[in-house]
Amino acid sequence: MIDILIIGGGASGLAAAVFSKQTAPDAETVIAERLPRVGKKILATGNGRCNLGNRNLSADNYHGSVDAMDVISRTPSAEEFFRSLGVLTFSDEQGRLYPYSGAAATVLNALRQRAETLGVRVECGFAVSGIRYGNDHWEVTADDGRTLKCRRLIIAAGGHADPKSGTDGTMLRILRDMGYQIAKCSPAVAPLKTDPALLKGLKGIRARCRVQAYAEGKYLHTEEGEIQFTETMLSGICVFNLAYLWGRYGEKLRIITDLAPDMNTEELCGYLREVRKLSGEAPVSELLCGMFRRELAAYITKAALRKKDIQQIRKLTDSDLRHVADTVKGLSFPVTGCAPWQNAQSTCGGVKAVCIGSDMSSKLHGNLWLCGEIADTAGDCGGYNLQWAWSSGILAGTNAALSLKGSKR
Ligand SMILES: Cc1cc2nc3c(=O)[nH]c(=O)nc-3n(C[C@H](O)[C@H](O)[C@H](O)COP(=O)(O)OP(=O)(O)OC[C@H]3O[C@@H](n4cnc5c(N)ncnc54)[C@H](O)[C@@H]3O)c2cc1C
């Protein structure tokens, strides 16, 4: 009989394995992973550089019923955790933490090495399809009929995002059948779809931007950063961080872009009046060319002066310039969808807080812990999801191991 079985060899499962084995070195600890190797997703994180945490952590960076900051505040920071594995980290100007090597492989290698040194066994190719509790132990069955029995079970099987790295929501379905309350799941940290007609002429453009989300006129959230326009979607980290709202508001959601976030409308009008004064015989299409790339300048001018037939900048009235300034600061995009799971980095929704104790234990079953993306909290882009995975895994692993101490084995 296995002492501690961890379903899922991703970020949270590996952290749970290391901490459970460190806490109870004699306990037989096994990871059951459906893929041929553990940690596939870790290698893809941060574009292969692994943004493994962030120095600026706050409750505002997490969305869902689970209090992520409560868990994070009771565990080592990502810097401390990786230092304890011999991995040096550095942070960029926004507090985002990366391995000093700049390679996600360093992170996975350190986790695997430590787990192996401690004696954690890994069962790869074990795709869990059923869980059952009976006679004081858990019985975990794979889709090929194999069974593992354990005293303590940790579920670290992730959510729905990026299914090619092993996460297709199977465990969420199993937990729902076991009576767990699951908050509706939708892609998080992902691009948002809008009306392609509104994106005509913008494809491929990137620009500094403030993006604001509204639903039925109600303000919801602001982000700043670089927006990217594709043929059908709004993309870029600032948009990714609004994607969690799609699950809550659906097509009521609207994104307003401010393409001059460091200027107010009056300052912008002042600048446009200066351009008008200097413009000579220049055509209207040149109005914003000192401020934006030509394609973006043309798009905004056309959108703002659609109904006017004015050829030269010098003929624009103050009210025309005001209209252009308002357009620069307020293009409006209805949200018609979210990118599919294949293009999402995280999952909004999951096992609700009412089912999870503050030590990551299940409130419905004894000897069961849950950690990582399977829980109902979605972090922003910037290292917040991996910080949650490490912290919740550390707590689940430590507490599962502590519960063995003094128990009959
Ligand atoms: C492309 C991409 C880039 C990202 N970049 C970053 C980043 O830079 N910074 C950041 O903070 N976050 C990033 N994330 C998010 C972050 O990787 C995840 O939130 C985090 O890995 C979740 O950890 P987890 O342990 O809960 O799940 P996962 O890491 O997804 O691991 C779950 C594991 O469980 C296994 N599994 C699932 N179902 C079963 C089953 N039925 N039986 C057996 N095994 C099963 C899976 O195969 C997988 O190995 C990124 C995500 C993606 C997709």
Would you give an account of this structure?
The longest helix is centred in the last third of the chain and has 21 residues, at 384-404. α9 (265-278) packs across α11. This protein has helices at residues 11-23, 40-44, 68-72, 78-84, 104-118, 170-177, 237-240, 244-249, 265-278, 294-304, 318-328, 384-404; strands at 2-7, 29-33, 53-54, 62-63, 89-91, 96-99, 121-124, 128-134, 137-142, 147-155, 182-188, 192-194, 206-215, 218-229, 233-235, 253-258, 331-338, 346-351, 368-370, 378-379. It starts with a strand and ends in a 5-residue tail after the last helix. The relative contact order is 0.20. The chain is 29% helix and 26% strand. The radius of gyration is 25 Å and the shape is elongated. The strands form five sheets. Strands 1, 2, 7, 8, 9, 10 and 19 form a seven-stranded mixed beta sheet that branches. A six-stranded antiparallel barrel has the order 12-15-14-13-16-17. Strands 3-6-5 form a three-stranded antiparallel beta sheet. β1, α1 (11-23) and β2 form a beta-alpha-beta unit. The protein contains twelve helices and 20 strands. The chain is an alpha+beta fold and 409 residues long. The protein has three domains: 2-187 and 347-404, FAD/NAD(P)-binding domain (3-Layer(bba) Sandwich); 191-259 and 331-338, Elongation Factor Tu (Ef-tu), domain 3, CATH 2.40.30; 265-328, Helicase, Ruva Protein, domain 3. Flavin-adenine dinucleotide binds at residues 7-13, 32-35, 40-41, 44-46, 50-51, 126-128, 156-158, 161-162, 165-167, 170-171, 345-346, 372-373, 383-386, 389.
